[in-house]
Design a protein that fits this description.
Distance between the termini: 25 Å
Largest sheet: 3 strands, antiparallel
Structural class: mainly alpha
Helix content: 55-70%
Order of helices and strands: HHEHHEEHH
CATH superfamily: Winged helix-like DNA-binding domain superfamily/Winged helix DNA-binding domain
Number of helices: 6
Number of domains: 1
Strand order of the largest sheet: 1-3-2
Shape: elongated
Strand content: 5-15%
Oligomer: single chain
CATH architecture: Orthogonal Bundle
Radius of gyration: 19 Å
Number of strands: 3
């Protein structure tokens, strides 16, 4: 990537890299917002985040969801009630500990996650196709390093998977 810097050492400058990442994050947020717009009448952004977590992790305890989403357990409980009312999730008592409730995604909830993910994937793929093939490996290496430094682990065989906030895709 240094050959594209234009100025020697530019990519060693934390501020320059930070500006580039912030610009890219604006683009990714816009893409995410557009993909969520198709389901906005059905779920809110926080509810969609919870659906993504459930899609990724499978059946989960409410306390674990609260921790992953960085919200209070009471907030998760309200979100769960709404998701159950809409048919996107259901809950059951944990057979291993009857004091715990487990939440899982329904087929209807999984469909929402797949719909949003497919839209986001298509839009990102269209952008990636406009990047010269000779520069794509550099982009992958840079994003892998960024994800690793941020604690976002790769999925099986290095393939990114959906994670708690729901922004990475398979």
């Amino acid at each position: 990537m240094a050959e594209y810097a234009g100025v020697a050492g530019k990519f060693d400058d934390v501020d320059a890299v930070t500006r580039a990442v912030i610009t890219a994050s604006r683009l990714l947020v816009a893409i995410s917002a557009r993909s969520l717009a198709v389901v906005e009448e059905q779920v809110t952004l926080p509810q969609c985040r919870m659906l993504v977590v459930l899609s990724t992790r499978g059946e989960s305890k409410l306390v674990d969801l609260a921790e992953l989403l960085k919200v209070a357990p009471s907030t998760v409980m309200r979100m769960v009630d709404r998701l159950i009312a809409t048919g996107f999730a259901d809950r059951r008592i944990n057979p291993g500990n009857r004091r715990e409730t487990l939440l899982r995604l329904t087929d209807k909830g999984q469909h929402i996650v797949e719909q949003v993910t497919a839209l986001r994937r298509r839009e990102i793929a269209a952008i990636v196709e406009r990047i010269p093939a000779s520069r794509r490996a550099d982009l992958v290496a840079a994003l892998d390093a960024f994800n690793e430094a941020g604690g976002e682990p790769p999925g099986p065989s290095g393939t990114p998977v959906l994670h708690p906030l729901g922004w990475a895709e398979a």
